[in-house]
UniProtKB/TrEMBL annotation:
Keywords: Acyltransferase, Cell shape, Cell wall biogenesis/degradation, Peptidoglycan synthesis, Signal, Transferase. PROSITE patterns: LD_TPASE, PROKAR_LIPOPROTEIN. It comes from Actinokineospora guangxiensis. Gene3D superfamilies: 2.60.40.3710, 2.60.40.3780, L,D-transpeptidase catalytic domain-like. Pathway: Cell wall biogenesis; peptidoglycan biosynthesis. CDD domains: LDT_IgD_like_2, YkuD_like. Residues 235-356 form the L,D-TPase catalytic domain. This is Ig-like domain-containing protein. Transmembrane segments: none annotated. InterPro entries: Big_10 (IPR041280), LD-transpeptidase (IPR050979), LD_TPept_cat_dom (IPR005490), Transpep_catalytic_dom (IPR038063).
Length: 385
C-alpha cells in the first residue's frame, strides 16, 4: 500500500476512536452547579390536606439542610396565627390555640446550605366537635376555705367518658408539699382532695387545660379553667353523739365545747350520721320545713349546713330542755342560740365536721362525700390508677 494511503487510514482510525470516548473515561459529565436540585427540604405537620386535626396537636414547619426564612399560618378569613421560629431556624411552631372546625393555610420559605430558596404551601382542617360542654371549678379565685375543702371540676352539660384524658389535663400546685389525688365521684364530677386535711395557710393553684380535650362521644372541652385560693386556719368540729356535746378544735386543741342535742338515737333514719363531712353553706336564717314529719315553715337561726343529706348545726331554743341532755332532733345538731351564733361566726366553708357514735353512717351517695372514702378507696377512683 502506498505510504500516503497508510497514513490516511491511521488518521481515520484515530478519529473513530476519539469520537467513542470522553475525557472522563466514559462517564457523563456532572450537571452544572446551578442545575442541581435544592438540598433543603421543608416538612409540615399536619400534612397538606389533613382533616380532623386536634386543636391541641403541635403545628410545626421544619427544614433540613437549611434555615427557615419565613412562615405564615392563617385561617380562612386571612387572620394570622401567632408562632415563632426556633433559635436555630430549623423549625417553626404555632404559639396560640386553633379553633374548632376551621381551615388553615400555610406558606413557608427556607434557604438551603447550598444557598437555594425552597418554598412550601398547604392547608388542613381542624376537628369539628359534636358538642363543646362547659365545665366549672371550685373553689373560686381568692376564696379562703377550710382544711377539708376538696377541689371540684364539674361537667353539668354532659357526661365524660374519656376520664383519663380529662384527668391528665388537670394540675394542682401548692405552696408546700401536699399529697393528694383526683377521684371521679361520677361521670360529671372529678374531685381532688389531700390524703390528710390541708395544712393551714396553704396557697393553691389549679389549672384545668380542658380546651381541645376529647371527652368522648364527640364532645370536646370548651375552655381552659384556672383558680387560685387559700386554705385558712385549721378548725375541726367533732361530735360524739352520745356525749350530747359539740367540740371545736383549732390546730388540734379543743377551744370550745357546746351542749348539743343530736339526731334521735332510737331511729337510725333520724340519727346524725357518722362520718367526716364539711361545712357547705351558712345561712343566718334557715328553713327546716319537713312535711314528711309534719312540720312546715320552721325557721331557725345561725344555720350551718354540713351535708346535702339534710344535716345542719343551728339554734333550737324550742328544744332547750334537751340540749346537752338528750338526742331528740331529726338529724341536725341543736345548740343554744348564743352558742349557735358563736360557732356560726367562727365557721368557714370547708371546715371538717366529724361525727361518731351514731347507729347510722352517712351514705356515700350524698353530695360532698369526699372524706367518707378511705384513702385507698379514693385513689382507686382515679382514672389514672
Amino acid at each position: 500500500m502506498p505510504r500516503q494511503k497508510v497514513i490516511a487510514a491511521l488518521v481515520l482510525v484515530l478519529a473513530l476512536v476519539s469520537a467513542c470516548t470522553s475525557e472522563t473515561g466514559g462517564q457523563a459529565s456532572p450537571p452544572a452547579a446551578d442545575e442541581r436540585p435544592p438540598v433543603a427540604k421543608l416538612t409540615a405537620a399536619p400534612a397538606d390536606k389533613a382533616t380532623g386535626v386536634p386543636v391541641k396537636d403541635p403545628i410545626t414547619i421544619t427544614v433540613t439542610e437549611g434555615a427557615l426564612d419565613s412562615v405564615e399560618l392563617a385561617n380562612a378569613t386571612g387572620k394570622a396565627v401567632e408562632g415563632e421560629i426556633a433559635e436555630d431556624k430549623a423549625s417553626w411552631s404555632a404559639t396560640e390555640p386553633l379553633g374548632y372546625g376551621k381551615e388553615y393555610s400555610y406558606t413557608a420559605t427556607a434557604t438551603g446550605t447550598d444557598g437555594k430558596v425552597v418554598e412550601l404551601a398547604g392547608s388542613f382542617t381542624t376537628v369539628a366537635p359534636k358538642s363543646t360542654p362547659r365545665a366549672t371549678i371550685n373553689p373560686v379565685d381568692d376564696a379562703v376555705v377550710g382544711v377539708g375543702m376538696p377541689i371540684s371540676v364539674k361537667f353539668p352539660e354532659g357526661p365524660v367518658t374519656d376520664k383519663a384524658a380529662v384527668e391528665k389535663a388537670l394540675k394542682v400546685e401548692t405552696s408546700g408539699d401536699v399529697e393528694g389525688s383526683w377521684a371521679w365521684l361520677h361521670d360529671r364530677q372529678v374531685d381532688w382532695r389531700p390524703k390528710e386535711y390541708w395544712p393551714a395557710n396553704t396557697e393553691v393553684k389549679v389549672t384545668a387545660n380542658l380546651y381541645g380535650v376529647a371527652y368522648g362521644g364527640g364532645a370536646y372541652g370548651k375552655a381552659d379553667l384556672t383558680t387560685e385560693f387559700s386554705i385558712g386556719r385549721n378548725q375541726v368540729v367533732k361530735i360524739h353523739t352520745p356525749d350530747h356535746r359539740m367540740d371545736v378544735y383549732r390546730d388540734g386543741k379543743k377551744v370550745k365545747s357546746y351542749p348539743a342535742s343530736n339526731g334521735r338515737d332510737s331511729d337510725p333514719n333520724l340519727n346524725t350520721p357518722n362520718g367526716t363531712m364539711i361545712v357547705m353553706a351558712k345561712e343566718k336564717v334557715g328553713n327546716f320545713s319537713n312535711p314528711r314529719y309534719g312540720y312546715t315553715d320552721v325557721e331557725k337561726l345561725w344555720a350551718v349546713r354540713f351535708s346535702n343529706h339534710g344535716e345542719f348545726i343551728h339554734e333550737n331554743e324550742e328544744n332547750r330542755s334537751n340540749i346537752g341532755k338528750a338526742n331528740t332532733s331529726h338529724g341536725c345538731v341543736n345548740l343554744f342560740e348564743a352558742d349557735a351564733k358563736h360557732y356560726f361566726d367562727s365557721a368557714i366553708i370547708g371546715d371538717p365536721v366529724e361525727v361518731s357514735g351514731s347507729r347510722a353512717d352517712m351514705p356515700t351517695t350524698s353530695d360532698v362525700n369526699d372524706w367518707l372514702f378511705s384513702w385507698a378507696q379514693w385513689q382507686s377512683m382515679s382514672a389514672l390508677n
